[in-house]
Amino acid sequence: MLRRKRRRLIPTANSTEKSAATDETFDTLDEHTVDDGGVMDDTLAAIHLLLGRYHSGFAAMKLPSLVFWHQLYHIVSNRTAVDQSIYRMRNEGLIMTLRITLQGPPATAILLTKDYIAYMLQYSEQHRATRIFAKGLPSLTSTPTVSKAAIVDAIQQLFHSKKRPPLPATVLDEDIRHLVQAGFLVTTTALDAQEEYSFGLPRLGLFITSVVKARAAITALLNRAQYKEMLEVDMKKRKLTCSRLPMDFHLLDMEGVDLIRRLVSGSTCVVRLGDA
């Protein structure tokens, strides 16, 4: 168990504005803050470790820090414990998961809900739709997709809890359209009649492109090496021109999906292609 200080969102100049359509005040940081408790389990500690380690790379892409679910398996050895912790933290609204479309097995990215909210409010310049959505978001993160009905219900519950009249359906439809256009909600291709969305991020395509190109570059590098393997220390000296993230992030990604293997012998670590 690790203990750490909680982070708070940074207020903006417009954080005390009122919504013209609803006369609802969204002016307190605490209402957008998700409490992750004073003590972290190993999985949450690993998430914080990786988010902090690669923060500068994501900041260069103007994105909040992310970590792949499969990367955690090589930080915390007990996969069952990792999965159980992620499900629990997602149900509690501490973390969110984003579906990432990549070649091969589907990938899932993880980020802190409060980081997502902070990014959303900053990116949208405190737009009314995102301020309202941010307040209801922690109750919607238990799955990577959310129905329109669930979004509407979460928002109306907020107004009911404050004894405010419910939002008109036309206003809610407009708010959801804004979130889709901004890239925070992505319409799914589900065949059923129910409108459903997955969570997204503007500029997420930059990250996906970086991962795809880095996987290809590292695979080519190892294919050119003798026995299709290299010392990890030598690989980490290489700079990937296709990504703002360091070599270590991409090695951890590829190891998590069995594209490479790390073979440790004493103080030496060799990186080898997964099929070598």
From TrEMBL:
Residues 1-22 are annotated as: Disordered. InterPro entries: STK19-like (IPR018865). GO terms for biological process: positive regulation of Ras protein signal transduction. Transmembrane segments: none annotated. Belongs to the STK19 family. This is Serine/threonine-protein kinase 19.
